[in-house]
Amino acid sequence: MNPHHRLPNIHLHLRRRGDSADSRLPGIPIYDSQYVASILQHIADRADVADLEHLEAHLSPSTLNLLRQIPTHELLRLAEQRPAFCSICVDEPMLHLAINRLRRIHAEQEETMWFIRRGAPAAAMLELFGINEMEYRRLRGVAGPATRRGRTPKLDGHLAEEVRRSWNRTRGSDDLAQRFHQLVDSYPNIHVATLWAAIKEIAS
Q1: What is the pLDDT of residue 143?
Q2: For residues 74-91, b (16+ Cβ closer than 10 Å) or e, as one string?
Q3: Left, alpha or beta for 150 (phi > 0: left; psi -120 to 50: alpha)?
Q4: Of 44, 59, 98, 176, which is least surrounded by CB within 10 A?
Q5: How far apart are CA 88 and CA 102, in angstroms?
Q6: 59 vs 204, which has greater pLDDT?
Q7: What CA–CA distance (Å, rounded) separates 182 from 25?
């Protein structure tokens, strides 16, 4: 970068395609100079590595070359200039897809911890959520559930039959985790590991 490059010329080049009124900028104008400087630096860095195909669809080669020449410490001064010359555009459908995806991730994480806190066995967490042994141990350490000792007790004949009927009533659902959650809720006094062993016997 050339430290003696004059900024007034840069201002003219950066504003040549826009209107002086902020309201004419596409998208949402950005006024925070730190953000704008970061964006300009990002553009300059991409231009430096010859990532030009997408950049040149929005900025001329001469403007990209000017941005590459501006010293980093001068980008902040440039970003402080008004009217605003930088804005963002948001793809709302894609934004909502991302929000919904994040919500699903959070919901699955909460469901995972719900089972972990109740002492669900490693085999259950692997089948329900694909959690391997190492991750299972880590989550147990985070949740800190009470450790069971000894073998998992089996249900007596009458209770085992009742659990079997309850489990079979939900077989129309493809969500195994939801079905098991419902079963655990229905029998709060029976340990999760015991219920898991019971449904695996039903499946076999």
Answers
A1: 85
A2: bbeebbebeebbbbeeee
A3: left
A4: 98
A5: 22
A6: 59
A7: 53
Query: Per this entry, what is the length of the chain?
Result: 204
Q: What is the DSSP string of 111-176?
A: HHHHHHHTT--HHHHHHHH---HHHHHHHHHHH-PPPP-SPPPPPPHHHHHHHHHHHHHTTT-S-H
pLDDT tens, residue by residue, 53-79:
888 888 899 999 999 999 988 999 999
- Tokens 């655990």 identify what position? 184
Task: State the pTM of this model.
Answer: 0.66
39 contact partners, CB below 8 Å, separation of at least 6: 30, 86
Q: Which two tokens stand for residue 33?
A: 């100079």
Sequence-separated (6 or more) residues with CB below 8 Å from residue 7: 70, 74, 77, 78
